[in-house]
Design goal:
The protein contains 8 helices and 11 strands. By secondary structure, the chain is of the alpha/beta class. The chain has a 5-stranded parallel β-sheet with strand order 3-8-2-9-10, sandwiched between helices. It has a 4-stranded mixed β-sheet with strand order 5-4-7-6.
């Protein structure tokens, strides 16, 4: 699958050239719809691949090891963190999250766009680690709409939902640190905006090299 994606990525650039992979960071408050928008992008652009994070958060019933996350016990996560094996890491709502460095570097070498769906702490860490990363902040139309989404997905208890909502204003303040903002007021429009950002960044001459 990865080699097929590599070939598809190369078909999008002029003959004699090859694409240079880059990181596309998608962040925003919990419940804003980052995952759905990223799924739309991955379906629309085969040259993209979703980075799989490691986490100490308990696995939810629908989640599969190595698909949504790599689930680690906290001591093992801390061991890998100490060994420098994460591109970035953050503690969010009491759980640790990190992006495996080797996995990302392997896919960038193949000219792919590695999409990182991370919280604002993770987004800041990625930007510090890789200044060439493209960052997109997904914003909700309102806090009330954010509350509806958090409650509607039914994955967290009332106390967790309230904690996420309390964190949202501070997360929104980080929006100006990003390259782009996508308002998720309508799913189709927001997905089209994210795809357009990807296409513009993929078309930069600076991201092409001799084949």
């Amino acid at each position: 699958m990865t080699m097929e994606k590599t070939a598809q990525a190369r078909e999008t650039v002029p003959a004699g050239l090859a694409p240079i992979g880059f990181l596309l960071v998608v962040s925003g408050p919990s419940g804003v719809g980052k995952g759905t928008l990223v799924d739309r992008l991955l379906a629309a652009r085969p040259g993209c691949v979703l980075s799989i994070s490691a986490t100490t958060r308990p696995r939810r019933p629908h989640e599969v090891e190595g698909i949504q996350y790599f689930f680690l016990a906290r001591p093992e996560f801390e061991r890998r963190r100490g060994a420098g094996l994460f591109l970035e890491w953050a503690e969010v709502h009491g759980h640790l999250y990190g992006t495996p460095r080797a996995w990302v570097e392997e896919h960038l070498e193949r000219g792919l766009v590695v999409v990182l769906e991370v919280d604002v702490q993770g987004g800041a860490s990625v930007r510090r680690a890789d200044r060439s990363a493209v960052s997109v902040f997904v914003a909700p139309p309102s806090v009330e709409r954010l509350r509806e989404r958090l409650q509607g997905r039914g994955t967290d208890g009332a106390e967790v939902v309230e904690q996420r909502l309390r964190n949202a204003p501070g997360e929104m303040e980080k929006m100006r640190e990003y390259d782009y903002v996508v308002l998720n007021d309508d799913l189709d429009r927001a997905a089209a905006r994210l795809v357009a950002i990807h296409d513009a960044e993929r078309s930069r001459v600076s991201r092409l090299k001799p084949a």
